[in-house]
Amino acid sequence: PPAGVTAKHLAVTLKANAVQVGLKGNPPFLDAKPFATIDVDLSTWTFSDGELNLVLQKATEGKTWDAAFLGHEALDAATAEADKKAILLERFQRENPGFDFSGAEVN
């Protein structure tokens, strides 16, 4: 956003299958579909020091997204594989809270 813009100037809409960001009274400068459905109740946005941060919570846990939005460049294969392993370890930790998976590796 241009200099001097505050959060009050922004129009941010988060829907299950759509994300729009713009300046109030103008067409959105971001009008995109997330890679998959998002949980709107757990998704949010913040604007601080001229930087907009969107936090999109996946509606389906445990699945990786190739990109944040449809049509955007996909993750490289190594990053995608690392993400899958991290998600698996997070799931193991949630399902087995008495165990420490911090040093675990997935093959």
Task: List its traits.
18% helix, three-stranded antiparallel sheet, 5 strands, 107 residues, elongated, two-stranded antiparallel ribbon
Describe the structure in your own words.
With 107 residues, the protein is of the alpha+beta class. 18% of the residues lie in helices and 23% in strands. It has 1 helix and 5 strands, in the order E-E-E-E-E-H. It has one helix at residues 77-95; strands at residues 10-15, 18-23, 30-32, 44-48, 51-55. It has a 3-stranded antiparallel beta sheet with strand order 1-2-3, with no helix packed on it. It has a two-stranded antiparallel sheet with strand order 4-5. Strand 2 (18-23) and strand 3 form a beta hairpin. The longest helix is centred in the last third of the chain and has 19 residues, at 77-95. The chain is elongated and about 50 Å long. The model has no long low-confidence stretch (mean pLDDT 90).
Q: Strand-residue fraction?
A: 15-25%
With helices defined by DSSP (H or I, 4 residues minimum), what is the helix count?
1
Structural class: alpha+beta
Average pLDDT for all residues: 90
Distance between the termini: 43 Å
**How would a crystallographer describe the biggest sheet?**
3 strands, antiparallel
Q: How would you write the strand order of the largest sheet?
A: 1-2-3
> How helical, in percent, are the residues?
10-25%
The SSE order reads EEEEEH
Unreliable stretches covering 5 or more consecutive residues: none
Query: Could you say which overall geometry the principal axes of the C-alpha atoms support?
Result: elongated
Please tally the β strands and state the result.
Answer: 5
How much is the radius of gyration in Å?
A: 17 Å
